[in-house]
Amino acid sequence: MEIFTQSAALKTQAAAWKKAGETIALVPTMGYLHEGHLSLIRLARQNGDRVVVSIFVNPTQFSPTEDLDQYPRDFARDAQLCQQEGVDAIFHPAPEEMYAPDFSCWVQEESLSQTLCGAFRPIHFRGVCTVCLKLFHLSLADVAVFGMKDAQQLLVIQRMVRDLDVPIRILPAPLVREEDGLARSSRNKYLSPEERIRALALSRGLRLAGEAFRQGERDAQRLTGLVRQELEAVQAEKIDYVELMDRSTLRPAKDATGHTLLAVAAYIGKTRLIDNLFLDDATPRP
Ligand code: AMP
Known about the structure:
alpha/beta, single chain, three-stranded antiparallel beta sheet
């Protein structure tokens, strides 16, 4: 497995692979890898001859008040996990490698990124789109894998690829949970044992809403109410949103007919957690 810290070296390797007729699958991450990331890597393995994992805590998607400096990092462990998964190359650049001191070009998605997390993290998706486009260019990837844990991010990236004719295929990967339901996340490391238990309110609320949906409940207020109730019961420090959204526009849906996304973001202690569930009329009733 190669470890590249320089963009030019990654590009040279990627070009050599392409010249040999091999396809490249990219998994963009911020590191501190867990089972969710590993499931993406395995999907990448099945969809490309070569797998590149980028490990880069991208400063431009964090606002000054967010957790950029505290974000968990353990590159040695990440590298070991990648090696075990048969990854061909890790790209692990320093911020200065990605952003020139006079960096001044950004990719801004202006519709899907306005709601949900975008409403609370105004520069977040601009940073995500910009760094992902750079990673797509540097890795010459044919395919990039994104997790449904970050459903809005996935949709925003798909929109960027469509609107800007980026020659890459975006492959969604299912959300991976802990056994007790908590969505796996690098940020779970911040949770104290007591907070870890309270954090289960997010997935429990979504599960209850999913069950209600399968029994015929379609009303947005009642479905989101089930999630809110769980968050309030554990005294979540702050609820950023619990929303039912149309899955293609990410605008609020009055009811869960058609393709909808039930999404939640809340603070447990100082940790901001997100989770979501797709609600779909195609889902059979019990
Ligand atoms: P991150 O390192 O948190 O930026 O995540 C990198 C990629 O892994 C993104 O595409 C995430 O959606 C995906 N990911 C993170 N956690 C999970 C999870 N629990 N299940 C599936 N994908 C995930």
